[in-house]
Write a structure and sequence with these properties.
Helix content: 10-25%
Order of helices and strands: EHEHEEHEHEEHEEHHEHEEHHH
Structural class: alpha+beta
Number of helices: 11
CATH class: Alpha Beta
Distance between the termini: 25 Å
Length: 341
């Protein structure tokens, strides 16, 4: 029976340090044409995200009523670009000027970082790491006219065969999460590969392995004793992002719990800091029950009572985050030729 590798990200632990982004960037996207690519990025929410306003474009992509939808391609300015600096002047002309931008910037991956919404003192924001969801019903796969995109049976990872890809970019238009990128130099589509060469050696993906906050759980959905199944199916506190897009994502999120809002007298009220309409917009109608469960289990722990959920989320044992059995399909150290994308 095919298995599905998945990730759960606890948003209550994310501090927006971008260690995951740096780990992914340095490992996978350091080649020509990949400068603007962030297979993993961390957005401040509410915010426009990366690329800019991807959620608005996503509403016109993915699956709607069982039919594949195609949104418009983003203008490259929605991603931003490598910051142009005065390297020539500083390093080769012997001037004493400092490094500085040579052109104005209009947008970038962290443009809205730490920007809060709402009115003081009830303003709020939180961090949302994003990567390819390796969906059960990937819109990118269905959209590809040459079948360059495929889903591995042994772990459900979605990859782009670089030998087959012809750069039609229909996958870019179909993915509602905008996590398929186009290499303008190689004229190929490229995306997160869930660090499958590491996974085949029993090693967690770089974004999860380098996270200092212990907020990423990695494992298989079918493993009933693993952290993923417990958080998704047993406790039902891990939710997909924008489930209405219809792709059935396999990256899940523990919704954030912020301090309650202040009332007019400056005391904590019963109103949530983050409006529930916005939480439902992100995580669907199941977020109400998930937040109630999280709060109830937090209260149990405060009363000195045991809580399996809190023990799982706290992850005192670092290794408990990763339940990755041996999924090796090639000889040790070997990567399948022509398959990384």
């Amino acid at each position: 029976m095919p298995r599905q590798v998945a990730m759960v990200i606890d948003l209550n632990k994310c501090i927006g340090c971008q260690a995951c982004t740096a780990a992914c960037k340095s490992l996978w996207t350091d080649e020509e044409g990949q400068e603007y690519m962030l297979w993993n990025n961390v957005e401040t929410k509410p915010g426009r995200g990366y690329p800019k306003n991807w959620q608005e474009k996503g509403a016109n992509s993915g699956w709607k009523d069982g039919k594949l939808q195609f949104g418009d391609l983003h203008d490259q300015a929605d991603f931003g670009s490598v910051v142009p600096l005065n390297h020539e002047e500083v390093y080769f002309k012997g001037t004493e000027t400092q490094l500085k931008r040579t052109e104005p910037l209009e947008y970038g991956a962290n443009w809205d970082e730490d920007t809060s919404s709402g009115d003081y003192p009830n303003n709020y924001h939180f961090y949302l790491p994003r990567l390819c969801n390796h969906c059960t019903k990937p819109a990118c796969l269905e959209a590809c006219p040459v079948r360059a995109i495929y889903k591995r049976e042994q772990d459900g990872i979605v990859l782009v065969d670089q030998d087959k890809c012809q750069g039609f970019r229909l996958c870019n238009r179909a993915c509602p999460y905008d996590k398929v990128y186009y290499n303008f130099v190689k004229r190929k589509s490229q995306k997160c590969i869930f660090c499958f060469p590491r996974l085949e050696q029993g090693v967690a993906p770089a974004c999860a392995r380098q996270c200092p906050g212990r907020l990423r759980f990695v494992g298989f959905l079918e493993d009933q004793d693993g952290p993923i199944a417990k958080l998704v199916y047993q406790w039902k506190v891990a939710l997909p992002l924008h489930p209405e897009f219809g792709t059935e994502p396999n990256v899940y999120y523990i919704p954030p719990i912020l301090p309650p809002a202040f009332d007019e007298e400056g005391r904590f009220s019963d109103e949530p800091r983050v409006p529930m309409d916005y939480m439902r917009y992100l995580f669907g109608p199941g977020v109400d029950a998930a937040l109630i469960t999280l709060q109830e289990e937090m209260d149990r722990r405060k009363e000195g009572k045991p809580s399996e959920l809190m023990d799982l989320l706290i992850a005192k044992d670092w290794k408990s985050l990763f339940n990755i059995p041996d999924v090796q399909v090639y000889s040790s150290g070997e990567v399948a030729p022509g398959k990384a994308g």
